[in-house]
């Protein structure tokens, strides 16, 4: 007799429902949950291989202090006393947390509460900074709150899907499957892909715009002008529900004075640009999805606002089958935003720059202090560690020594940091190597809590395995450190559901209707209701107990006057441009079957066999010009570092550019950590790094 548990996939932001079956001998099989509205039974290769990654190989099974096996008391006390000492001697900003979109919402909530409410610093940032922080800023500028207005079902109701900077087929595969199924059912549905690379997604699109890297804002500014000049303005919506349309149009007209100008600036033919513009103009039901190709840019916020401007002008937002749609990379990037896990946020979508919000959160938490201003964002945080300004850091469920740009600088920073605490389920990662205190965390299958997907759908992860060794859930570890720092009463959680109810109550506290995020309808869940919680989209209040599929259909936004804002955008070139020393532009991204820095997917032989080693894709003419050949090894070098990768010669890559996947860590490929090549260039508004536009040289190895 097998036991079946419903849970959620731990990989990407699609948030697929998974049914886990376990037989009497404990053997686990996984299948897609046919009732889960994110995937209706589908799983991609990564989700299907989850059962292959459940072994204990490489697990961290006990706390460690200074490289020696320890026990929980000693490890927790060492961390708590270390943080207390730093705060006492150097102030709260000498301490920082760097957390993760892999954490469950309950873990994230407790970490943010400890840092912002009780340590009294806003120095908590997250690897979600690398994933969607530009979308957060753009949403707040346009809507007055960080809201993604659409639902996945809009992909089935659209007549045109525009994918900007997204290799959806590999990075959000189940959504891609849904789009392709929708296309089979509805041959009129058109799919346009805007991407410098001819990706697997682009290969199946009706139209591929192989845009010059970094020129997306110019393309969408040109679209805004085209729509206005073609009479596509939705006058009623623009007049009643928006502000600053004329300012945005004026900026777009100076930027994109003609289609010829746009085409030249974007490296596209006039005919291709016109086809895209015509299709967008004549199709009412348009969804524009944007992902890391847009976000990971030194002007990512402006690019997103340029996209949103086009939807505001046409009033194509908040109605079925239309709207601008941010695809988040990680399984709980959205949940992290809900709890305020970015350094420039407060909990429950409240604003750290608002004195009233700070007072409100402080009162709700019964906290001694709330910082008056935002803390250090990811790249700046590790620079501050290297400079000795931050002296103690706690890294949870992430591997910044591989994943951050200029990752050798991260190593230098951690090597000299006075106290490095790391919580991880794996013993040996590039980051755990620097830890003074190591906490063994439980992982997928062992932990319970909630995550929120790209479409605002809150979904349960449920435990079905015993936790091995001395591993514990992150919320417990953080609560224990908090209590040992003297904050007993406010961190006395017994179960993740205690944390969840507090988080839900804060979301509905006082001025909830002005912030967008609201799950106050779940604040009084019984234990049983929490256990059986079904996947639902927020806002989820007493008046919307079934959740909310889409927002802004009523033309009401979250700005003070309840009107959306057009944002004037002038396109900017990426900060790094090729030069004589580094003549190639470097683009980085995912492969189909790996996740992040390989610590989990590297355990599955089936997944590992899809792409066995790091590689660089290069156009044939560049390969000839730089003397590298198909299948040989090459050294790729930048001003920050160098890697050795296998050469793949392909016309899928534009001339003048390289693509290298982001995943490999030192355990799997000693010389393949691509992020050593990228400098810490970020969007000045969001702090999101520019992973899509480095400059490098390549030579035969
Ligand atoms: Fe998991 Fe994403 Fe694949 Fe769904 S699409 S199974 S959430 S990795």
UniProtKB/TrEMBL annotation:
The domain of life for this entry's organism is Bacteria
What sections of the sequence does the record tag as coiled-coil? none
GO biological process: what's one of them? nitrate assimilation
> What residue stretches are annotated with the 4Fe-4S Mo/W bis-MGD-type domain?
2-58
Query: GO: which molecular function terms?
Result: 4 iron, 4 sulfur cluster binding; metal ion binding; molybdopterin cofactor binding; oxidoreductase activity
Cofactor(s), names only, from the UniProt record: [4Fe-4S] cluster; Mo-bis(molybdopterin guanine dinucleotide)
Which terms are listed as keywords in the entry? Answer: 4Fe-4S, Iron, Iron-sulfur, Metal-binding, Molybdenum, Nitrate assimilation, Oxidoreductase
Similarity comment: Belongs to the prokaryotic molybdopterin-containing oxidoreductase family. NasA/NapA/NarB subfamily.
Q: What is this protein called?
A: Molybdopterin-dependent oxidoreductase
Species name for this entry?
Sedimenticola selenatireducens
Q: Could you say which residues of the full protein are shown?
A: 1 to 701 of 884
